[in-house]
Amino acid sequence: MAKKIRPFLTSRPSLNLLYRFIRVYSMTFRFSVENEQNWMNYMRRGGKVLLCTWHQQFFAAIRHFKSYVAFNPSLMISKSFDGEIIAGVAERTGWRTVRGSSSTDGGKALKEMIGNLNQYGLAGHILDGPKGPAGRVKAGAIQLALITNAVIVPFYTTAERAWYFNSWDTFMLPKPFSKVTLRFGEMINLHDPGHNNDFEGWRIELENIMRPGLIVTNP
Question: How far, CA to CA in Å, does 37 sit from each of 43, 44, 97?
Fold first, then answer.
C-alpha cells in the first residue's frame, strides 16, 4: 500500500495542493521578522550569505522565504521520500533545490551548492538534517562557508502556540493564528580574526552559537 501511495504524494498535483495549503495555513500566522536588514544589505553589496537553521524550525519560515525568490537562492535537500516532498514545496517557493545529503551524493550536491552560492550569493542550509541528531552541526555548512567565503547567518523561528511532533527533532508546527517570530542572528565570518582556525573548532563554535535557539520541550 505504501509503495502505491508514495508516487501519488510526490506527484505534481499533490505537491501543488500541498504548497497551496501551506501558503494558506501560514497566512494565518501573526508574523514578524527581526534583524533581517543587516545581512540583506551585505548581500546587496556583493557579499555571499548562507542562512542556517535547525530542522525543527524550518516550516514556520516557508511563508517569508518566498520573498527571496529574486535572489535565486539554493537549498540542499536529501534524496529521501520526505526530501522529495520538501523539495517540491521549496521549488514552488522559488528556491533552487540541490538533491543530496551526507549519506547520498553529498560531494556532488555540495559542489552544486558551491557553484550556486558563488553565482547568486544566497543559499540556505539545515544544520542537523535530514536525520539528526538534533542540535548537531554537520560539516556541510562549514564547508560551504569556507569555500565560498560566505558569512553564516543563523535564523530561528518561535511560535506563541505550536504542536511539537514526536520525531527526532521535535518538529515544530505553529498553530493557526499563533504569533510567529522569525529572528536572524548576527553574521558569522569564519575568516575573521578571533575565530577558531581549524574545521572542528569552527563546527563547535557554530553549534555553541545556535544551540540556545533549539527548542526543548518537556517529555
Answer: 10, 10, 25
